[in-house]
Amino acid sequence: MVINRPFPLDTPSVKSFRYTFYAALCVFMILVLLQPFGINEARGSSLVLNAALYALVTFVSTSINAFLLPWLFPMFYREEKWTVGKEFLHMCWHLVPITFGNWLLTHWLYGAPLNRHTLFSFMWITFVVGIFPLWLNVLLKQQRLLKKYQAGASRLDEQLNQPEPVSPTPLNLPAAIVFTSENGKEQLAVATENIRYVTSADNYVRILYIKDNQPVSHLIRNTLRKAEEALAGNPQFFRCHRTYIVNLKAIEHVSGNAQGYKLQLKDVAELIPVSRSLNARLSEVLTQPQIVI
């Protein structure tokens, strides 16, 4: 079903303020140019001022939602489980505080009564006007990103299938990587070529590697940053996501959906996500000459 398709979850950032500003600007322009709902009938105030106040309601309500909801419900706002349906519900929820804000503002500007009838009227108008553009926007964005990342993944797959270039200056890299716990009491030594990925797991890092031709997972209490330091100097390891470091030599296939690239590693069932901000860098490192070990 369409509603179950993966969709990128935009984390709160400065960019969020830019998007909400554009939404507020659209509200302002519609009210000034089209003058719907009798907005020009307020006494003792200008049309531009009233339109600016309604736009301000949109900006403040949407901004608060964008930052507050992921903080209040972190288990719901998880990108690996974010879908078209969840994105649409998230966008629809933005309309609720906007409705209440416009209801109160209209009472202040025009003296409209504060009762259930006017509230439901505002709710009806807001959702009728907003539902179709929101749904269309979500679907178009999902299709655009899906095509973009599928095409990019196909190009990366082609790069993987090309003969591996040989570095003119081979380096003597360690045959094994030693991961040490935070308190220094535990160590895990793994052959470099057997490591598939390292990921964060609360206060631990999880190392997935191959032992006796089987994938083995081991937890060590430390941070992913410390694990990255242990892997430093080995160009075959790449931090593809804020929670994952992968062995580039273990990549068998690259796929893509609306959330970005996914890496299929040799002997690993799960797909490893790639941060959208690192797509270009991943393509770059896959085309670079690999160090001969």
What does this protein look like?
- The protein is α+β, with helices and mostly antiparallel strands and 293 residues long.
- It is 47% helix and 20% strand.
- It folds into 2 domains: 2-153, no CATH class; 163-287, Beta Barrel (OB fold (Dihydrolipoamide Acetyltransferase, E2P)).
- The protein has helices spanning 14-34, 47-72, 84-110, 116-161, 224-231, 279-287, and strands at 176-180, 187-191, 195-201, 204-211, 214-221, 237-241, 244-247, 251-257, 260-265, 271-273.
- The strands form 3 sheets. It has a 5-stranded antiparallel beta sheet, sandwiched between helices. Strands 8-9-10 form a 3-stranded antiparallel beta sheet. It has a two-stranded antiparallel ribbon with strand order 1-2.
- A hairpin with a 2-residue loop joins strand 3 (195-201) and strand 4.
- 22% of the residues are buried.
- The mean pLDDT is 85.
